[in-house]
Design a protein that fits this description.
Glucose Oxidase, domain 1, 426 residues, 2 domains, alpha/beta
Length: 426
């Protein structure tokens, strides 16, 4: 079965598929070969990006190592540069935090995700030696790397952040550190990341020659895996999306139902704070003086970027992300009434126990709205239930229910031509 073959190829043969890695290049090559074999015209679109290469962090107390991952702050695709090794006493951050509580200490914090960026800045100003964030709230939740998106409204640049080590741990390991601290032991903490200039790669395919005019419909999904941890197989997020979209494209071609105005895009760098979405909307190669989204967004808001660098969106965008398990299809759209009537009239979606229409935003729509470019496009975003295992080593083949992915692929093969037909008529 094509879907299982594609999933196993991504997860078991390639493995780590973060932007700029050899695994990503291998996947792009395979996607290009598969699309070309279907008789579609393929294009690989490259764009500059600053890549984070995470190194293993070290966290221990009394010689006992505690699993941890480095914090990638905002902007999410640039992250916090870290290069430090400290030995200090641990203190849990009290509700009535005072600057003198943190000076010279390693601080343990259970702050909510949205509070992390400001917390790093405040603690850095106090002379804090390091910060340990409890990132898996549930007692049995798997450890995932702490990340803050660059879309956080209070953050414009990572450059001014303090260079103290900041790492994340699971809730179950916090007590180990606290027990050691209460017995008078110091905590050893080290973290390091590097930034290198890299290249992101989108793969797109269609039947329409660019000279004939813009496409009316995009079918898109991101192909990169989480960059924070090389041990993440990324089966559901987003190996399943890649497999479902490719299977749907294969079906449409086989029954001669691939619309001439459709372009399929497997895009890169979604995990880098939606930077890949930005590159679909703006010609970043022409703006190669920076790989930081913050100044690009600022220039766009001021009208300081020539319109020639702004790419046109089609009338319809259909995005697929994380469709590995679940019988309820979450369908985010800007046109819920029209979609509901389309599904009823064509008897689509009966294989799901429910299709839940909502204003949920897809990744590209989120970025397009941020840039003020979403007004003339109808967006559709398809996903199945999310899970705390994404971005963790547990996101492997056992996390996927193959029949659910097949249902999504079959649904797409029927839905996409109908949506494209509406786009052409409007």
């Amino acid at each position: 079965m094509l879907i299982e073959e594609l999933l196993r190829f991504q997860v078991e043969e390639i493995g780590f598929r973060a932007t700029g890695t050899r695994g990503s290049q291998n996947l792009v090559r395979s996607l290009t070969d598969r699309l070309s074999a279907l008789g579609l015209d393929c294009v690989e679109d490259q764009f500059p990006i600053e890549i984070l290469t995470p190194s293993p962090v070290s966290l221990s107390v009394g010689g006992q190592c505690v699993p941890s991952l480095p914090y990638f702050g905002a902007p999410g695709f640039l992250g916090r540069g870290q290069d430090g090794q400290v030995l200090a006493y641990l203190v849990e951050l009290p509700p009535d935090f005072q600057p003198e509580d943190a000076a010279g200490k390693i601080v343990l914090s259970r702050a909510a995700t949205g509070d992390w960026p400001g917390l790093v800045e405040r603690l850095g100003a106090t002379g804090c030696s390091g910060l340990v964030l409890v990132v898996a709230a549930g007692q049995d939740d798997p450890l995932r790397a702490p990340v803050s998106s660059f879309l956080h409204p209070d953050l414009t640049s990572a450059a001014a952040w303090p260079e103290m080590p900041v790492v994340g741990i699971a809730n179950s390991d916090a007590e180990i550190l606290l027990q050691g601290a209460n017995s008078g032991q110091q905590i050893a903490l080290g973290a390091k990341t590097q930034r290198i200039q890299g290249v992101g790669r989108h793969v797109s395919a269609g039947r329409k020659n660019d000279a004939d005019g813009p496409e009316t419909t995009w079918l898109i999904c991101h192909h990169d895996s989480a960059y924070e941890n090389p041990d993440v197989p990324a089966a559901t997020d987003n190996g399943t999306g890649v497999a479902a979209v490719m299977a749907a494209v294969t079906q449409m071609v086989a029954r001669d139902g691939f619309p001439k105005d459709l372009r399929v895009i497997f895009y890169d760098a979604e995990e880098y704070g939606l930077y890949g979405c930005l590159s679909l909307l703006v010609d970043l190669t022409g703006l190669s003086d920076t790989t930081d989204a913050a100044p690009i967004l600022q220039r766009l808001s001021k009208g300081d970027i020539a319109s020639s660098y702004i790419r046109s969106l089609p009338r319809t965008v259909i995005e697929v992300d994380t469709v590995g398990r679940g019988d309820v299809l979450d369908y985010g759209t800007t046109a819920p009434d029209l979609v509901a009537e389309l599904l009823r009239a064509n008897h689509l979606g009966s294989t799901f126990s429910r299709i839940r229409l909502s204003p949920m935003l897809g990744n590209l729509e989120r970025m397009a709205r941020l840039l003020g470019l979403a007004q003339n496009t109808e967006f559709h975003f398809l996903t199945l239930e999310s899970s705390p295992i994404v971005h963790t080593p547990l996101d492997n083949m056992s996390a996927v229910n193959l029949p659910d992915v097949v249902r999504v692929a079959d649904f797409l093969a029927d839905l996409v031509p109908l949506l494209d037909q509406r786009s052409c008529q409007n």
